[in-house]
Amino acid sequence: MAAAVGGATPPSRAEDVTTRGGEIVAREAPGTSEAGIAVLRGNARVRLLGEQDGWSEILLPDGRRAWVPAAEIVHIPDPAPSSPALPAVAAAATAPPPEPAPNLQASLAAEITRLRSVVDALEAERRQAPRPMGGEPPPISEVAPLVTGTIGLVVGTLLGGAWTRYRARRRRSIRF
User: Fold this and answer.
1) How far is CA 15 from CA 45, 75, 95, in A?
2) pLDDT tens, 7-16?
């Protein structure tokens, strides 16, 4: 596991980093032969925990630790600290929300389109897959002959047994 691997040099303090874009496989330990535990897409923002031999240990959004190549992450510059915290909060509460950047809107629209196509492909694949046992029930027209035949078999067995018992009793009662 990532927590068991030691020797990572921690940064002076935990800092936020972002991926360079594309898809990056986050691994259990440093090395390309280690098992992948997550895929970071786009400019995913994660917390940098340490670095070792060209690999960076990160904290995934779900709380797990993982390793990615150090060349695939970019350090996010710290914003200038504001002196009083309360006036900044009050100013943020009264200011109108900022308009999203056009690039952000375009990238979000592209991601939504990509995800819709993935969902459509999965739905088409699900429709083509054979139905498992216990899935959707067959139509009644296929089931009715089986039910009718089964009922006839059960009724015939019961009547046949009753008729056999009746004849056996009659034979015994006629003998003197």
Assistant:
1) 10, 8, 28
2) 555 444 567 7
